[in-house]
Amino acid sequence: MARRKNRKKQAKRQNQQAHNRPATPPAHSGATPPSPSPAVVNTKNASRQSLAQKRAADALRKIKEMKAGKERDPEKGDYGKYTSYVSALPAMILMSGLGQAMAMVRSRKLAGYSQLYDHLQGWLCGGRPYAGDDLINAIVQGSEADYIRAQAEALAYLEWLKKFAVALLDEPAGQQEEGADVAAS
Fold first, then answer.
1. 134 within a domain of the structure (yes/no)
2. Residue 179 maps to a domain
3. Runs of H (alpha helix) within 31-172
4. In a domain, 156, yes or no
5. Which helix (H) or strand (E) holds 184?
6. Contacts for 45-52 with beta carbons within 8 Å, 24 or more apart?
7. Which of 48, 78, 89, 170 has a CA that sits 20 to 30 A from residue 33's CA?
8. Peptide bond into 38 cis (omega under 30)
9. Domain that holds residue 132
10. Which CATH number belongs to the domain containing residue 98 in this structure?
11. Residues 3-37: tens digit of each pLDDT
């Protein structure tokens, strides 16, 4: 029994010593090793993006497209109170569920709601968790497990849409004035 304990202690010491030894640097000619080209690094990183990074990249792309559309043609690129809508939608989803919230968004004929619906549809029907091109049909025809995943994914995606909308889209004039009045008082 004592021998067994001694062997375990000795193995543990050897293991610790192996981890505490400094790694020997590779022998080279003294020149700095070549760094990988940026294209190679980007290719490797693109396949290793987390889901949160993919959500953020997609949300940023969509918000930038909206902003560019308004800059090209102010009448066609109208997104109304998009920032307000995207800020309010997570609470609506939590209170009513994804299906009812998306039905309400789909039924509104105001500028901003159609873009918001299209953004969520593009993300959720792109294989996360639905596949297809119509979000309402996917919600109605999908399984309960898919619905729960879609609701969680919608909330996570809306978080990024909201952040980028607040950061990049112009606020309507009425909201800017209210903020200035509050700051002045």
1. yes
2. no
3. 38-47, 51-72, 82-96, 98-107, 113-124, 135-141, 144-168
4. yes
5. helix 173-184
6. 52/156
7. 48
8. no
9. 55-169
10. 1.10.520.30
11. 666 666 666 666 555 545 444 444 444 554 444 44
Whether the upstream peptide bond of residue 26 has omega within 30° of 0, thus cis, is no
The 8-class DSSP code of residue 32 comes to P
Structure tokens at 24: 């020997």
84 belongs to a structural domain: yes
d(CA 178, CA 182): 6
Q: Is the pTM of this model over 0.85?
A: no
The pLDDT tens digits for 36-54 are: 444 444 545 556 889 899 9
The structural domain count of the chain equals: 1
Q: Report the SS3 class of residue 120.
A: helix
Can you read off the two tokens belonging to residue 124?
Answer: 């959720």
The answer to whether the CB of 113 falls within 8 A of the CB of 105 is: yes
Please give the single-letter amino acid code of residue 65: E
